Amino acid sequence: MNVPVPEAALQQQFDDPPQQREAAMLGMWSFIATEVLFFGVLFAAYIICRWRFPLPFVEGSAHTDFAMGTAETAILLTSGCLSAIALRQIQLDRARQSAVLLAITAALGAAFLVLHGMEYHDEFEEGLIPGLRYTQAGPGANAMELFFSLYNVITGFHSLHVLIGVVLLLVMAARSWRGAFSSAYHTPIEIAGLYWSLVDIVWIFVYPAMYLVGSAG
Amino acid sequence: MNVREIPSLRSQLAVLAALLILLAASAGLSRLPLGWWGLVISTSIAIGQALLVLVVFMRLKSANPVLRLVAVLSFAWPLILVTLTLGDYLTRSLMHAPW
Questions:
Q1: Whole-model pTM?
Q2: What ipTM does the predicted assembly reach?
Q3: Which domains, from first to last, does chain A contain?
Q4: pLDDT tens-place string over residues B5-16
Q5: Do the Cβ atoms of A55 and B32 come closer than 8 Å?
Q6: Which of residues 37-76 of B touch A (CB under 8 A)?
């Protein structure tokens, strides 16, 4: 099927749609590289602190909600697959199906945020949020505070990325539903999908680092 | 866009199944007292999952070589960062002030 690229979609600085798409993809991957560096620095801090204080990190991780973390991981992995299928559907000119899949992906992202919000609430009640309410005492409490500082900063920034992703996916779903995309032009959906996969990948490393260290008991 | 570049629905769902099986393996094995091996196993599983997402969901399998290069470099820089930082932390002894 040969669907023309909408006039408005092709920006004047590009010769043709493929050139515009390639520029957009390279731009997005460059952005992803900066995001990986951003989270990479936080993970580097985590690795050093865990090396210096192995037992308080095991103890800190044991305070996190293993079941909730596992459920959140499953939700994000499933949503990543749905966003990939949404791209496939728009390539097949099934715009409405793509829109529905993007909306479900956004809903799963929102479910992730709700579950993680419940976790933050429980951690606040338990006194595990450094700077706000940290009530732990004992020999390893100070080093465990480091674990929870890193946990809150990394998961907090990740949740912020999820929130941005949910908004982005909803916008893409609405535009796809209204027929803004087709098999010939769907770069915004592709880019939103890349962003969502990045959010997925960050969490794939957060899960073992934060939830699995202390789960052997 | 060439139709041949569009992945099959089955391949996408197979990768999701693989990701969820790896998640179950990671969660299950973490309950066993494996010591530092637990860290090696969970990190290896996470790297495997990330590769699946990168290659299949982010379509690096069929991407332009420039994009693949940027993708590899984006993970290589943090790896160098961690390696060099750990190299420092693991080899330097605490130096006390001589006074």
A1: 0.92
A2: 0.92
A3: 16-211 (1.20.120.80)
A4: 799 999 999 999
A5: no
A6: 38-39, 42-43, 45-46, 49-50, 53-54, 56-58, 63-64, 66-67, 70-71, 73-75
